[in-house]
Amino acid sequence: MTGQQIMKRAKKEGRNLLTEVEAKDLLKEAGIGVVDTRLATSREEAVSTSQELGFPVVLKIASSDVVHKSDAGGVKLDLKTAKQVGKAYDDILKGIKKEYPQAKIDGVSVQKMARPGVEVIIGMSKDAQFGPVIMFGLGGILVEILKDVSFRIVPLVRRDAAEMVREIKGYPLLEGYRGQEPVDVSNLEELLLKVSDFVEKNPDIGELDLNPVFAYKDGAVAVDARVVLEGGS
Ligand code: ADP
Ligand code: MG
């Protein structure tokens, strides 16, 4: 299915929130690097899909009623065998059913476990005055507690992207620290430009979150993605 078809189907079903798999398919089509991710609707399918993708894998709850997947044990990382995948599937469903008894569950998403990198966040929201605005920051507590983020209005030009990456306080972390490899900053700039281009071409998208993106010395890949279509979540 193309990105346009994915968005059309969601609208038709009265949904503004795309699933993780849908959001990643849309981004992939736009040339944005995402972890290969598929929906599994049964325990057996979760196991066979993980065997197709190759271990280690990650399982996540797939439900539009569960926004923060890691709460209530909805994310299981680094699963190395079919047995671990089967158990993770059962544990995820058990936890979610207990925590969110009303949730409509699609199944679980199965994806490759990405190698560790520096976690960054790229977001887009719409400002009443400025229209689409892109946000960049480092993942985890740096964004949540310190609000160490930068913003630019769409469309971004190359200089905007270069400034956004460098003006956060955590920039030295991207240059490498304590033996950690520096990340490919020009690749992150490219990614910001691609996201800007993507939202400009898709005015139906109201909100976008790549949270987190793993940044490496040789590229970057989004491991979680959220897309909200116009009309609210
Ligand atoms: P949430 O809905 O809670 O934001 P995420 O999909 O972001 O769920 O997963 C939570 C965390 O698990 C991420 O911040 C990341 O650190 C890790 N993670 C998620 N997916 C992967 C993956 N495919 N490979 C490696 N780590 C991952
Ligand atoms: Mg996330």
Give the low-confidence spans. none
Q: Radius of gyration, rounded?
A: 18 Å
Count of DSSP-assigned helices: 8
How many strand segments? 10
Q: SSE string, helix = H, strand = E?
A: HHEHEEHEEEHEHHHEEE
Structural class: alpha+beta
Mean of pLDDT: 95
Helix percent band: 25-40%
Biggest sheet statistics: 6 strands, antiparallel
| Ligand catalogue | adenosine-5'-diphosphate, magnesium ion
For the termini, the CA-CA separation is 22 Å
The percentage of residues in β strands lies in: 25-35%
Looking at the structure, what is the overall shape?
globular
Brief digest:
The chain is an alpha+beta fold.
Detailed description of the structure:
The chain has 233 residues and is an alpha+beta fold. The chain has helices spanning 3-12, 20-29, 43-53, 82-99, 141-144, 158-167, 171-174, 185-201; strands at residues 37-40, 57-62, 75-79, 107-112, 118-127, 131-138, 149-153, 205-216, 219-222, 225-229. The strands form two sheets. Strands 5, 6, 7, 8, 9 and 10 form a six-stranded antiparallel beta sheet that branches. Strands 1-4-2-3 form a four-stranded antiparallel beta sheet, with helices on both faces. It is globular, with a radius of gyration of 18 Å. The model has no long low-confidence stretch (mean pLDDT 95). Bound molecules: adenosine-5'-diphosphate and magnesium ion (MG). The site of magnesium ion (MG) has 2 residues, from loops.
Characteristics:
36% helix; single chain; 8 helices; four-stranded antiparallel beta sheet; binds adenosine-5'-diphosphate; globular; alpha+beta; binds magnesium ion; 28% strand; 233 residues; six-stranded antiparallel beta sheet
